[in-house]
Write a structure and sequence with these properties.
The complex is a heterodimer of chains A (149) and B (530). By secondary structure, chain A is an alpha+beta fold. Chain A contains 3 helices and 5 strands, in the order βαββββαα. The two termini of chain B are 26 Å apart. Classes of the chains: A alpha+beta (149), B alpha+beta (530).
Chain lengths: 149, 530
Amino acid sequence: MAYSKENLFLLRLPKDHADRVREAIRTDALRDRLQIEFFSGQRYVKVKFDEDNLSGKLLDLPSIIEVHKTLDKRTIYKTGDISQMVECTKEHIEMPEERLDELPLSRRKEMAKKFTSNHGIAPPLKNIRKRRFRKTAPKKFIDSPEIEK
Amino acid sequence: HGLPGIESNNMVQHSTPALDLYIPWLPTYWSASALRYFHRPRLKINKLTNGGDSTGWQPLSNLKKNIAKKDKERDKERIQSGGGEVFFMRSPEDLSSCDGHLILAEYSEEHPPLVMATGMATKIKNYYRRPEKVKGAVPPEFEYGETTYLQNTSYFLGNLKPGQALQSFECNLFRAPVYLHNVSETDFLIIRSDNKYYIRELFDLFVVGQECPKIEVPAPNSKTVNQFQKDFLQVYLYRLFQDSDDDPKKIKMEMVRKAFPSSVMSESVIRKVLKQFADFKREGYESGSWVLRSDVRLPTEEEIRAMVTPEQACAFFSMLAAEQRLKDAGYGGKSLFAVEEEEEGEETNQKIDDEVRAAPWNTTHHFINAMKGKYQLSVSGPADPTGCGEGFSYTRLNPKEAGHPSTVSPSKRPKTVMGTEADLRKLKLSKARNVLRNFGVPEEEIAKLSRWKVVDLVRSISTEAARSGGAVDVSSLMFARGSRCSQSEAQERYKEECQRVFDIQNKVLCSNEVLSTDDESSESEGESDD
C-alpha cells in the first residue's frame, strides 16, 4: 500500500456493535458490512453496520493523541495525530438543515461547543477540559466549528 | 538532590524522512490556521465530499491481511540480512498507520511545550528502584520498554520509592512519565488514505504526564530563531539544488517562495543566503535562475542532516504555535514575548503576564536551568498546566520567596518565616503584654519590663515559637522576626514540594477508576486542593 497522506480519527460505537465489529475484524468477515457517510458542511455522520443505522457526531477531543508504531515494543515511531472522534448512538439524530459553514459567526462559537468533547479517552483524562487544563486567557478569535472553505 | 542530568542527544534514531525534514511532516511554512490546529488535525469534510452533498456510503475496510502481509515482509528481510537488526523506517510509507503494532499516546497537557513530528522516534524506558533489604526483588513485568535501574538518583523532579517503577517516554525533545491504560473496547482507529477508509483495533494507550523538556523552545524574535530560519532555508535550498537535473544545477526563486512565502521570510534574506553559493543569471540560457557556482561542492546528505535536526524544527514550530495562541488571546508587542531575565527583580517580574509565563520558551528555559541547579522552580503557580496542583509550574521561584512556605504550600504548617504586616513599632503596650500572657510569661515578670523590653520579648518568644512550630495561637506568630529559613531548609522544602507533586501526578494519571460525570464535577470545582 503506497503512502499518501493519512487522516486519522477515532470511531466510537455502542458496546454491542463494537463487539460485533471487533469479531468481524478478527475473523476477517468485515467485508463491506461497516460503512460511513459524511455530509458537506455538517458534523453529523451516518454509520451503518449490517442492517443497523447509527447516528454519529464528529467531536473535537481535548488532548493531542499521537499514534505510534513499533516493531519491537521498545522504540516507537510517531505515525500521526488524532484529534477527532466520530461518536455513534443508536438513537436517531435528525440532521439539521443548516450547514455549519453557512452559519453567522455569532452562532459558530455555540455550535463549536456542541462538537467539543470535554473528555480525554483515557480514564484519568475524563473531564480533562474542565477539570485539569489550566485556565487560559479567552481567545478573541472565534473557533470556526471546522469546515474548510 | 539527584537532579536529572540532561542526557546527550541522539539516543534515538529517527525515521529517514524525519531526518530529511520531510516537508509534509516538518513543513517549511505554517499558516495561522495550521498553527491554531497544531498537532490537532481536523477532517476537512468539504474536501472529503469533493463539492458534492456527501461522501456517499464508504466501506471501512479491514487491515488484518495487510498487517499480516507487512509483518511477513519484514520477517523475510530480517532473515535475508542474516538475522541482524534491520532499520525499517526508511520511507514515508514505512510510517503508515495501516500496518505494524500501534499504540496511542494521549497528552495530559493541553499544550505540551514540545511535540514530536511524525516519523520521529521515542524510546520507552521503565525506571525501577530496587527495594532495600529485599533480596531477589524483580521489577514488575512490562509489555513495553526496557528496564533501567535507579539508585538514589532520579530523572524526574521527584524520586521513586524503593520498589516503585515508572514508565517513561524518552526522546531528544523531552522525557515524560507515561501511564499505560486500555483503549475502551468501544473505540476503533479509522485511517483515511487516498479516499479510502480503513478500520483497526486499538489496545494500548499511554497517558503522557507533564513533559521534562530536554531542549529549550526559542523565544520569538530571538537570535536562535533568526539563525534557525536561515539554516532551515539553507537546508531547503541545498536540497532544491540537489534535485536539479540541469548542468550546472539551477533553481528558480518562485520555487523557494512556495516553501517560504513573503509572510515568513523576505526576499532579501533569501537572496543573501543564495548568494553564498549561487549566482543570479540575468541573461542567456539560465536567465532568471540561480545557478550553483562551479567552485561550490554541495554538502553530503549527512552534512545537510546535521545542519538542522528535526528537534530544532519542532522547538521552532512550538514557538510559532504558542506565539499564535498569545496573539489570538490579544497579546502583542515584543515586551510580552520577552524571556524573564535571570537577574530581574520582583517588580519587573510582576509585569510579565501569567499567560506569557506559561509560554514554552519560558517554561522550557526555567525547567532546564532549574535542572542545572541554577535556581529553584516555584513548583506551584501560574504555569502549572493542570491549574489544579497536579502538575509543576516551570516558573522561576523568586529568590525573595525562596523557602517561604506560604508560597509553596498554603496553610499546611505555621509560618516559620518572619515578616508580616504586623508592625512591632505600633504594637500597643497592653496588647504586647497580652501576647506575653498568652505565651505563659508570669504576670510579675511582665510588670517589671519597660515598653521596649516587652516588645523585645514578644519578638524573641514568638520567633522561638514559630521556629519550633509549637505555637499557642497563630495570631501571636505574626510578631516573629528573624532571618529567613536557612538554605538547606529551603532546599529540603523544595525537594518535599517536588516530591509531593510528582507523587500526585503518578497517582492521578495511573488511576483507572471511573471519574464523575460533567455535572458532578462542575459542582465540586475548586475543592480539588487536597
